Each structure stands twice: as structure tokens, then as C-alpha cells.
Amino acid sequence: MKCSACGVKEAVVSQPHTGRALCDTCFLFDIKERVRETARRFNMIGESDRVMLAVSGGKDSFVLLDVLSELLPAERVFALSIIEGIPGYNRLEDIEKLRRYAKERGVDLIVTSIKEFTGMSLAEIVRVARERGIGVSACTFCGGLRRKIINTCARMLGATKTATAHNLDDEVQTAILNLLRGDIGRLLRQHPNAPRLSEKFVQRIKPLRYVYEWEATMYSYLKGFRFQETECMYIVESPTLRARVRKWLYMLERESPGTMLRVLKAVDKLAERLLELHGRLPRLPQCSVCGEPTSYRRQYCKVCELLMAVGAKLAVKPQ
What we know:
Layout: E1 13-15, E2 20-22, H1 24-41, E3 51-54, H2 59-71, E4 77-83, H3 92-104, E5 108-113, H4 114-118, H5 122-131, H6 138-156, E6 161-164, H7 168-180, H8 184-189, E7 203-205, H9 213-223, H10 240-255, H11 259-278, H12 302-309
Parallel strand pairs: 3-4, 3-6, 4-5, 6-7
Antiparallel strand pairs: 1-2
Helix pairs in contact: 1-9, 2-9, 7-10, 7-11
């Protein structure tokens, strides 16, 4: 079968949500154009922005690095990778693969770790939490710490934007979870143009938010990226509600291709309208321990609260 776009090369990828069959060249071009259009539509990157890419070594990270390194000159983009400290996961050799590719693209990769920021690896934090009977999943510790470290490093290193590799699947699952929990505030903050609630937050952008996870996987295979495929040992502890939402969305997507794209676009329109009606969201208070933003009516930010519970604290003071 010939490619639906160019009509010349043989098709290698079936794209259910568009009904097209694409050759490798047209498929890669389609993904890049979608990322460019997403960045343009939401004005994600300005002419003076210096962007820090938060990368892990997985397929989505390679796609993010590949596309943004074409969009931006080398002096305006660099990357950060965080070693969590999970046995058998995020190994140094996987980071080195990412570093070599980043160097080929003219992008500097900076590597840090949870242990460098807290004095403990994630595995050590989880072990202490379990010994003390703290009913918090490893994913909760990891997610909060990663977000804190990314934002802190972005400020320390002079970035004006941080780009994460969240794909369409990630974004739709999060949006549905926010709706199911009735958390309209988080739903609004998920929108690319939501206002920052603190000057200490470096604005986060998600250029891959309209790219399916399977498309990121196919992009990486077609480009020959040797990305990390080892699954995190803590994945079985991920919230069951998200797992159920994911399963439900994939079932709907199989029955009606394009469902997830339509859902996210509808949520975006809803958020845009609500932001217009509501105006500016209230500013966040500061954590009394680290001085970073925290949730309303909370004395401590979630990260400091979790670290205090295991007898640790931030070893690197946010600046």
C-alpha cells in the first residue's frame, strides 16, 4: 500500500485516528509538524526563552529532544535527567545513551539525582516509609520530588521554560482523573496557558500533548533510538484509579479512533472558557520549610511534608 500523504513510498504505519497509512518519512514529518503546531498554538516558546528539557531516557524523552533540538538553536536549549535511585531502573548506561544523542544534537545534558537533593535515594525513602508504616506510594514520593527538582534546577540554571515529555495518553488520563475527583483547579492548571500561581514556578510546557504514546514509540523505533525499556519496579503501586481510567480510555480508542484527541481538545476548550470567566487564579502561599509554593491552607509543601515523615529534608536549598 502506498503512503496516503506522498503516494510514492510504501506505507509502514497505520494511523487509526486519521484513517491514513503513512510511510516512514511522512509519519515522522506528521509528528514533528503536530509538535510545532502545538507549540505555536499555545505560544509555548518565545523568541527569548531558554528551555530546559526534563528527560528520563524513555521513548518520549528522545522524541522531545529530537523535535525541540530542531526548533531551537543549541544555545537556547539544554536537558536535565534525574536518577531516582530505583534498583535496576534509570541505570547510568541508559543516561549515557541519552547524553550521546543529546551531544549529537548540540544539546548539553545535566544529570542529577534524588539522593543529591535529599541525601536519600528513592529506594531508601520508600524503605524508611514502609518501616514507619507511612501509607504513601513510591510514585507519590517520586512524582513530587521530580517536580520539585526540575523546577529548582530550571531556576538555578537560568531556564525560562521547562519542557516535559508528557504525551496525549498522559494528559487525557490526568484530565479525566481531575474531573472524577472534582478538582477543577488542577484541571485549569493543566491547560498550557494557565497562569503561573507563583513567580517561583518556571513555566512548564508539554509539546507532545497531542501525540499518542504509540506514536512516540513508533517515532523512536523508526529513528533508531535506543531508549530505556525497563519498567519501574514500583509500577504495580501506581494508583488503581489511573490504571482503570487508562484501560477504559484504550477500550474507547479502539472502538472509536481519535477519542483521546477529542477528549483533550474538549477539555482544553472548557478550561479556556473557565479561565476567561474566572480571571486570575489566587496566588499560592509559601512552604514554611523550603519557601517554595504550597497548596492553599497548607503550612508545608507536599514534598517537605513527605520528607519530614521519613526523617529527611531537602539537602539542596531551592534558590
